[in-house]
Write a structure and sequence with these properties.
This protein is 73% helix and 0% strand. By secondary structure, the chain is mainly alpha-helical. The radius of gyration is 19 Å and the shape is globular.
């Protein structure tokens, strides 16, 4: 199987392995956390940059971990409906992907040393937990994704921890607005996972991967997606209660035209056709975050 790698260069294979289309979703919470720090006159360039690089490396490490551990657990077979994975395709051996995972997470840990210097022991705890969960999502004796806990941990780490952590390393504290801003970003990250699990419901069930979609069925997963998107668009309204000038965060509603066709896709399609909804939801989160962050910046400068 490894011989198939001759069709692609090593660089192309590793580029495929890191799944670059997932990286904007990792950048989204850092954008929001940094923009909120700017709004509060607390923005610091180097901690913000380190938070961004750390988030991207953690996402890459998690992608590689999912690639190899799903293959080892039998969740990735020739019937896989999602985007190609290098272990399942035989482009890289499992040990190679594990080494790549360790390198990515190791680099994230090195960047984390600087963030620990800036933010103290709180960042150390968050960093250790983030690395452990990146591995434990599909690896280890109690893989979170296989136990139906995926949405919980995605919300915690790609919403609360990422937004509030980015804000904390710049401001030295976490404001009520930071907690609030983390919620829609976490919900949209969860919506990406919901599409993934809805698409893979049959293969996950066969592999014993008990996602919420497997546990509660197709209709429940569709409602889960709708609720996550609806709440993500309602929460910006609450910012106005803190300060009327924060009305600018309603710029996030400018991403609504991207959400409408995604809702239709999730409602009407199954299987491989949901790959378009998966990529579209990741794009939606990034555009939403970009517009939300722009609103926070405008609220400060205007």
């Amino acid at each position: 199987m490894i011989a198939s790698s001759t069709k692609k260069s090593p660089l192309e294979i590793w580029w495929l392995a890191i799944r670059p289309r997932t990286l904007p979703a990792a950048a989204a919470p850092v954008l929001v956390g940094s923009a909120l720090a700017f709004y509060d006159n607390a923005f610091q360039f180097f901690p913000a940059l380190a938070a961004l690089l750390g988030a991207l490396l953690l996402q890459i490490g998690a992608n590689l971990a999912n690639d190899v551990f799903d293959f080892k657990k039998g969740a990735d077979t020739h019937e896989r409906l999602g985007p190609p994975r290098v272990t399942q395709m035989g482009l890289l051996a499992p040990n190679q992907v594990l080494i790549g995972m360790c390198v990515s997470l190791g680099l994230a840990a090195l960047i984390g040393l600087y963030l620990i210097y800036v933010g103290g022991w709180v960042i150390l705890v968050i960093g250790i937990l983030a690395i452990l969960c990146a591995i434990a999502y599909t690896g280890g004796p109690f893989p979170l994704g296989y136990l139906g806990l995926g949405e919980v941990f995605v919300f915690l780490f790609f919403g609360l921890a990422a937004v509030c952590g980015t804000y904390f390393v710049q401001a030295g504290t976490v404001s009520p607005l930071a907690w609030l801003a983390a919620i829609p970003i976490g919900l949209l990250a969860c919506a990406i996972l919901v599409v993934n699990n809805l698409r893979d419901i049959d293969t996950d069930r066969a592999a014993g991967k008990k996602t919420l979609a497997v546990r509660f069925g197709v209709n429940a997963a569709k409602w889960e997606y709708r609720v996550f998107l609806a709440l993500a668009y309602l929460i910006p309204l609450t910012f106005v209660f803190f300060d009327f000038e924060l009305l600018w965060v309603l710029l996030a509603w400018g991403s609504l035209p991207l959400a409408r066709p995604l809702l239709r896709l999730v409602q009407n399609e199954r299987g491989r056709a949901l790959n378009a909804a998966l990529a579209g939801t990741a794009r939606l989160e990034f555009v939403y975050a970009l517009l939300f962050a722009s609103g926070l910046i405008l609220a400060r400068v205007l």
